[in-house]
């Protein structure tokens, strides 16, 4: 990931509805959701959700799969991983001890455990 890709992702996520959509889709991995389900869950008009989905997809944060008239949207977890790696690539001036709290805070979400606190 380069600076322009990271900026596109951050720009797409800097709007509250788009951030909510992305977080919702992460929660529904790997099955994904249809635009209507996203709109219903977030109580927003479907045409507004469709606009947000397009922006997120152009930023590489979503994938979509069409089956007939139904489009299922999924979070692009590979792009999320690349964005996180981009942010942490030069973390803590080469001192792994400083990055431990950051990385340990990420583990619970992926291991099914709840973070402390």
From TrEMBL:
Lineage: Bacteria, Pseudomonadati, Pseudomonadota, Alphaproteobacteria, Acetobacterales
Name listed for the protein in its UniProt record: ArsR family transcriptional regulator
Assigned keywords, A-Z: DNA-binding, Transcription, Transcription regulation
Region forming the signal peptide: none
Transcription regulation keyword on record: yes
Keyword Transcription: yes
Domain HTH arsR-type as annotated: residue spans: 1-95
Cited InterPro entries: ArsR-like_HTH, HTH_ArsR_DNA-bd_dom, Metal_resp_trans_reg, WH-like_DNA-bd_sf, WH_DNA-bd_sf
Pfam families, A to Z: HTH_20
CDD domains named among the record's database cross-references: HTH_ARSR
